[in-house]
Amino acid sequence: MEKTYHLMATAAAGLEALVGKELDRLGYDAQVENYRVRFDGTARDILNANIWLRTADRVKIIVGEFEATTFDALFEGVKALPWEDYLNYDSEFPVAGRSKKSELFSVPDVQAITKKAIVNRLQDAYHIRTRLPENGYFAQLEVMIEKDHVIVTLDTTGPSLFKRGYRVNKGGAPLKENFAAALVLLTNWHPDRPFVDPTTGSGTLAIEAALIGRNIAPGLIRDFDIEQMDWFDKSLSDSVRDAAEAQADYDRKLDIQGFDIDENMVQIAIENAKHAGLGQDIVFKQLAAKDWTTEKQNGVIVANPPYGERLGELDAARELYAQMGAVYRQLPTWSKYILTSDLAFEEAYGEKATKRRKLYNGALRVDYFQYWGKRIKS
């Protein structure tokens, strides 16, 4: 029988429920917590989750968890875990650490003691008395303590899941790919409806919408740390990817457009879309938000305009918001979703949002202002 692992998908604040929904759709029993979603699965499921999750940051194995208020308890708790199931005698395993509201608050000490306990366990398991060489496969570990509850994890992802591998150029202040996917999934967009990103920048929102519209797994063209670990069955790499590839829908017609006032950004967006294999699915064009009009009905606009965070830029940002309001009010059947850190956005836009959702773009508090369209049946 295949081994089952206790797992967690980590997520940015405010996106945990979305990650939970994604895991539910993938067939896992997900438990949503702050900054993470727990689920169980086999080695195949670990790779499958890495390949499919659009809005998570990483997938980690929970090697163990226990209570500890003393360094002795921490040492013994970590040493009792079956590290030889995950690490070779020569594995390279740095230990990251975090502590919050706990007796053991010194993170460097927590890391050092955790590392020492793992070394002791591996020396006993592999009958080694000398120093461990740490020149084998890489395994990033983390010890997290919150309210004296210790969770020790092994990262299976490597570079964060937002690094899809398609972005050849970023331009200015780009959205992370998983955050862009979350913004799309938080709308009422369906692939049979028009999708417009009026401030497209490097094209991330439009590309993520196309990946969703085609049901293409976002991690299909990249590798994950778990695939280098010698306890992982390498034959799963091809079979999980083949199964994911088979679910993509390349026949569906998509109507996705991205506009930007900056011609250079439009060229970057076109390159990124080509690199994602979606060059034919998205129309990018140089166009100011105020100059866009359409006869189409029931579309969805998702915008990440400049926030005006820097000195002197707020007035220009608010002028853009006012222009958007003037244009978009002419489109009653369209739903509009606009992300900004400017809490006075509604005033500049000229209309109160149907709904606001608080999110975090990195460390920055942002609001997702939602204006729901009055949909007409076609």
Automatic annotation (TrEMBL):
GO terms for molecular function: methyltransferase activity. InterPro entries: DNA_methylase_N6_adenine_CS (IPR002052), RlmKL-like_Mtase (IPR000241), RlmL_1st (IPR054170), SAM-dependent_MTases_sf (IPR029063), THUMP_dom (IPR004114). Keywords: Methyltransferase, RNA-binding, Transferase. Signal peptide: none annotated. SUPFAM superfamilies: S-adenosyl-L-methionine-dependent methyltransferases. Residues 45-156 form the THUMP domain. It comes from the Bacteria. One of its GO terms (biological process) is methylation. The keyword RNA-binding applies. This is Class I SAM-dependent RNA methyltransferase.
